[in-house]
UniProtKB/TrEMBL annotation:
Keyword field contains Acyltransferase: no
Requisite cofactors: [4Fe-4S] cluster
UniProt record, GO biological process: base-excision repair; mismatch repair
GO molecular function: 4 iron, 4 sulfur cluster binding; 8-oxo-7,8-dihydroguanine DNA N-glycosylase activity; adenine/guanine mispair binding; lyase activity; metal ion binding; oxidized purine DNA binding; purine-specific mismatch base pair DNA N-glycosylase activity
Function: Adenine glycosylase active on G-A mispairs. MutY also corrects error-prone DNA synthesis past GO lesions which are due to the oxidatively damaged form of guanine: 7,8-dihydro-8-oxoguanine (8-oxo-dGTP).
Superkingdom of the source species: Bacteria
The keyword Transit peptide appears for this protein: no
Organism for this UniProt entry: Brochothrix thermosphacta
Domain HhH-GPD residue range list: 45-196
Full protein name: Adenine DNA glycosylase
Pfam family, one: HHH
Protein family (similarity comment): Belongs to the Nth/MutY family.
Amino acid sequence: MMAKWSEIEKKQFSEVLVEWYEREKRELPWRENTEAYRVWVSEIMLQQTQVDTVIPYFERFMSLFPTMKDFAYAPEEQILKAWEGLGYYSRVRNLQTAIREVTEAYDGVVPQSKEAILSLKGVGPYTAGAILSIAYNQPEAAVDGNVYRVYSRLMRIDDDISKAKTRKVFEQAVNETISQDKPGAFNQALMDLGATICTPKNPKCDMCPVQKYCRAYAENDIEKYPFKSKKLKTKQKYLVTAIIQSNDGRFLVQQRPSEGLLANLWMFPSIEEEKPVEDLVESYQAGVSMPLYLNNQSLGKVKHVFSHLKWDVEIITGVMDEADLIEGYRLVTLEEMKVLPFPVPYQKVWQLYLKTRSEL
DNA sequence: AAGCCGGGGGC
DNA sequence: GCCCCAGGCTT
Ligand code: SF4
């Protein structure tokens, strides 16, 4: 049984980890420089999102909005389009709210105090710590999923990471070991270690630069860490959507409500039920209060899995008279549709529509 | 404290 | 299928 971490050991661990990072760090677009705006955008994108997914979005975002000024007052349609497919769309709306706040209340400079930065919309304890350490060289912990995993193993911490108060335990553990002169490198080293070596399944302990400090490795019980009690369950929903064209060939679309799932994104008008829909045309017509001429045959089905629910989407087609268009809907050309942000399940719907149409 | 909020990748 | 991912907000 190895002893509790000594002060000397903490110091050594920190130095070894930072040296490893400086030797082996991943070259990533947001690591080209430490401008606070770039760090901020990357940290928001990386919330619950893997590095490889983020890279192209980050590149595109930065070329669209090179400075906070470019982003602060861009139209919502444009910022959602830049986020299209990335998920958790409130992130980009909160980011714009926060960057407006920085523009108006902080003279365009991302604040350096923990209290101020934490008050910004969408910036929680993790993101605050990441920005302060990486952009401003402050020794602040940034506790995320990687830190839970790496530290629970290093120190055999068995607190339940599902519980809110557990974050404090890990913040203290990091604070006791964080590099005082290179906190940004230290925190990013933990990310790289968690992503490439100390992975959820089959950690590569043989290649681990801090293996000699690791208590779980020494005790051979890595699989016990981290401990997480709750698992989430998903609900099933049944949708019917329709590709509906007006006499001039435009397509019927609708903006989603400003709150809730996929807020403010666009879709093909849809109905949602708890159970499989029996008569697609009858139910759909009952749910959309415009006269429609619907084809009584399903184009096919699209399945989509969210974190907390599953969609089963039946697709039908139809036509309408443009004179019958009511408030809340739009008839758009293909060019107009391209500019609107659509969630992935509706992109799947559109792809299926194009495929079946090309087969005619 | 628990639920909500996307989408993709690994196994 | 399941779990995880550079989490935060709302209730
Ligand atoms: S020795 Fe293994 S379990 Fe411990 S920190 Fe390194 S990779 Fe993770």
